[in-house]
C-alpha cells in the first residue's frame, strides 16, 4: 500500500472522475469551468486528468474535451490524488474505490447502493489507509445533511432522523394527494417527466430510500449499519382511497426513512432503521415537502429539531454536493494531515421492527351489522392497543353485495408486535371482509 497523499508539493491535485452520466458530466463541467474559483478556495489547482467511461462516443449532458475520456479506469485511478466515483452499482465501482484507497487517494462517491451493501468494508479500508472517504451526494442530492450530522452535531446526541429521501416516491404520493390520481397514473406521470426510471422498482419498492437510511443511521448513531439492518416497505400498496382517507383525517402519506434510538426489552439502547409509507399530520414540517424535493428532519437532545430541505436529485444539484466533498477534502490535503474518518465509536445494535412503538392507521372493510364496532374495539383492548379515533362510512346494500362499512382507525402509540397480533385476530373475525391497509403514523 502506498503512503497516502497528505500534502501538495506542486500546487496541483490530480482528479480522476469515474463515470460521466447526468451527475458526472456536470461535475466535470464545473471542475473545468470554475477551475480558478476552486483553486482560490482550496489553495491548489484541481487538474481533471481523465474521465473513465464505458463508451467514449456515448452522448453526454455537457460538452467536454474528448481527450479526457478513457476506458482504462485502473490506470486513471492509480495516478490520482482524488478519485470521484459516480459510476453507480457494485462492481467495478467497489474494486476501483478500494484500489484508490490502497493507492492513498482521497475518494468522493455518490454510490448509495455500494455504501449500504458494503460500506463497513470501505470505511475500514479507508481508516487503515488514513485517507478520506466522503459521500455527501449519496443521500438527498444537493442537501448538505451528512456533514452537519457528522461534524456540526458531533457534540450532541441524535435521537431520531426522519427523511423524505427519494424524490420519485414523493412526487407520486404528492400527485395522489393533490389531484386524487391513482398510483399507476401518478407513476406514469413521474416517468413522463423524468422523475422515475423506466424500471422504477428501486424507488417505488423503497430500496433506494433504504440504502440512504442505512447511511443516515450509521452517521447519526456512530455505528455501521448495512442494508440488511433496514426494514423496507415501498409505496405500491398505497391506494387513492388511503390517500383520501388520510387527507380527510388531517394527514398526508409520505415514504419516510427513519432511524430512531430506542430501548430493547432489557432496557438497553438500540436503533430501529426502517423505510415505509407513513402518515404525518399536515402541520408537520415534512408534510409540506412537495413534488420531487427531499427533506431530512433531525431530532437531537440539545439542538432540538432541525430540518434540511432542497433538491434531492438531478445532475447539477447533486454535482454541488460532490464538489463540496472534493473542495473540503482538497483543502485538508493542502493543509496536511490524515483523512477525516468516521466516528464509529459506538456499537448500538439494530433492533427488529417489532420493537418500534408508534401510532397506526388501519383500514377495514366490515359487514354493516350491529355489534361489529364493539367486537373490533374489544380485540384492540385485549391486545393493549388503544384506539384514538375511528371513522365509519356506510355503503348501502346493492345488486352486487350486502351492506358494508368502511372503518378508518388511528391508534395511540403501540408496539409493532402488539399491532400485528391485533390485526391478525381482527382478520379472523367473520364480520371482516378485508383489512385494506395498515400504515404507521409519525409526528403525533
Automatic annotation (TrEMBL):
Reactions catalysed according to its record: L-homoserine + NAD(+) = L-aspartate 4-semialdehyde + NADH + H(+); L-homoserine + NADP(+) = L-aspartate 4-semialdehyde + NADPH + H(+)
Keywords: Amino-acid biosynthesis, Methionine biosynthesis, NADP, Oxidoreductase, Sodium, Threonine biosynthesis
Cofactor: a metal cation
InterPro entries, A to Z: ACT-like_dom_sf, ACT_dom, Asp/hSer_DH_NAD-bd, HDH, HDH_cat, HDH_CS, NAD(P)-bd_dom_sf
Domain ACT: 361-443
Annotated pathway: Amino-acid biosynthesis; L-methionine biosynthesis via de novo pathway; L-homoserine from L-aspartate: step 3/3; Amino-acid biosynthesis; L-threonine biosynthesis; L-threonine from L-aspartate: step 3/5
Record SUPFAM superfamilies: ACT-like (SSF55021), Glyceraldehyde-3-phosphate dehydrogenase-like, C-terminal domain (SSF55347), NAD(P)-binding Rossmann-fold domains (SSF51735)
EC numbers, comma separated: 1.1.1.3
Family note: Belongs to the homoserine dehydrogenase family.
Biological role stated in the UniProt entry: Catalyzes the conversion of L-aspartate-beta-semialdehyde (L-Asa) to L-homoserine (L-Hse), the third step in the biosynthesis of threonine and methionine from aspartate.
Protein name: Homoserine dehydrogenase
Protein source organism: Arthrobacter vasquezii
Lineage: Bacteria, Bacillati, Actinomycetota, Actinomycetes, Micrococcales
Amino acid at each position: 500500500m502506498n503512503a497516502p497523499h497528505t500534502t501538495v508539493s506542486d500546487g496541483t491535485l490530480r482528479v480522476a472522475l469515474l463515470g460521466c452520466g447526468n451527475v458526472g458530466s456536470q461535475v466535470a463541467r464545473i471542475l473545468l469551468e470554475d477551475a480558478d474559483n476552486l483553486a482560490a478556495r482550496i489553495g491548489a489547482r484541481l487538474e481533471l486528468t481523465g474521465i473513465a467511461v464505458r463508451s467514449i462516443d456515448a452522448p453526454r449532458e455537457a460538452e467536454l474535451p474528448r481527450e479526457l475520456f478513457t476506458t482504462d479506469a485502473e490506470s486513471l485511478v492509480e495516478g490520482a490524488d482524488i478519485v470521484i466515483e459516480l459510476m453507480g452499482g457494485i462492481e467495478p465501482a467497489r474494486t476501483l474505490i478500494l484500489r484508490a484507497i490502497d493507492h492513498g487517494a482521497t475518494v468522493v462517491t455518490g454510490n448509495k447502493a455500494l455504501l449500504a451493501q458494503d460500506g463497513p468494508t470501505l470505511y475500514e479500508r479507508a481508516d487503515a489507509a488514513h485517507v478520506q472517504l466522503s459521500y455527501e451526494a449519496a443521500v438527498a442530492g444537493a442537501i448538505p445533511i451528512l456533514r452537519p450530522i457528522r461534524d456540526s452535531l458531533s457534540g450532541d446526541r441524535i435521537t431520531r432522523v426522519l427523511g423524505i429521501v427519494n424524490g420519485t416516491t414523493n412526487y407520486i404520493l404528492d400527485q395522489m394527494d393533490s389531484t386524487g390520481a391513482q398510483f399507476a397514473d401518478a407513476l406514469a406521470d413521474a416517468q413522463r417527466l423524468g422523475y422515475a426510471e423506466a424500471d422504477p422498482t428501486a424507488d417505488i419498492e423503497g430500496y433506494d430510500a433504504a440504502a440512504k437510511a442505512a447511511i443516515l443511521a450509521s452517521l447519526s448513531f456512530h455505528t455501521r449499519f448495512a442494508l440488511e439492518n433496514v426494514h423496507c416497505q415501498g409505496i405500491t400498496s398505497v391506494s387513492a382511497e388511503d390517500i383520501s382517507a388520510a387527507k380527510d383525517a388531517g394527514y398526508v402519506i409520505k415514504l419516510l426513512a427513519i432511524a430512531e434510538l430506542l430501548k430493547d426489552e432489557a432496557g438497553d439502547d438500540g436503533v430501529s432503521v426502517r423505510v415505509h409509507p407513513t402518515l404525518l399530520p399536515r402541520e408537520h414540517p415534512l408534510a409540506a415537502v412537495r413534488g420531487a424535493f427531499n427533506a431530512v428532519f433531525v431530532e437531537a437532545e440539545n439542538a432540538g429539531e432541525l430540518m434540511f430541505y432542497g433538491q434531492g436529485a438531478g445532475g447539477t444539484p447533486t454535482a454541488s454536493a460532490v464538489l463540496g466533498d472534493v473542495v473540503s477534502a482538497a483543502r485538508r490535503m493542502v493543509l496536511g494531515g490524515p483523512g477525516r474518518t468516521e466516528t464509529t465509536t459506538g456499537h448500538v445494535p439494530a433492533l427488529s421492527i417489532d420493537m418500534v412503538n408508534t401510532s397506526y392507521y388501519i383500514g377495514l372493510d366490515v359487514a354493516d351489522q350491529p355489534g361489529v364496532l364493539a367486537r373490533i374495539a374489544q380485540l384492540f383492548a385485549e391486545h393493549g392497543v388503544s384506539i384514538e379515533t375511528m371513522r365509519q362510512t356506510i355503503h348501502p346494500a346493492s345488486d352486487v353485495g350486502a351492506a358494508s362499512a368502511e372503518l378508518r382507525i388511528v391508534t395511540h402509540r403501540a408496539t409493532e408486535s402488539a399491532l400485528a397480533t391485533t390485526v391478525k385476530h381482527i382478520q379472523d373475525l367473520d364480520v371482516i371482509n378485508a383489512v385494506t391497509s395498515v400504515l404507521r403514523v409519525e409526528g403525533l
